[in-house]
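Human: My hope is that you can spare some time for a protein that puzzles me. I am handing you a single protein, as its sequence and its fold in token form. Could you go through the record with me and say what the backbone is doing? Take your time, and here it is.
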Amino acid sequence: MTLSSQMNEASKVCRISLSERFDFHCVREFREAYEAVKDQGVKHFDVDFSKTGFIDSSALGMLVNMERYYKEFGVSIELSNCNEQVKKILLIARFDKKFDISFQ
């Protein structure tokens, strides 16, 4: 398993915890994780990068697709616990304009 997800029913927050690599091999599993909670009334996602040391362009695409999927529902998405390498990539891609990002 490359990631895990947990939905807090009370707060309607879903945390998706990524593994060391967030890349092309995670596409289906990541999409299934965020789509699975749509009918549960999710209001916020916390995508946790605390274990992630590598992301590629597929990861950026997955995050954009997630944002598009939930945009009309007003669901917020936070990219949390990003290390320096992940931070650089996200800032170069200007993801700070589209997502709330927190760094380690």
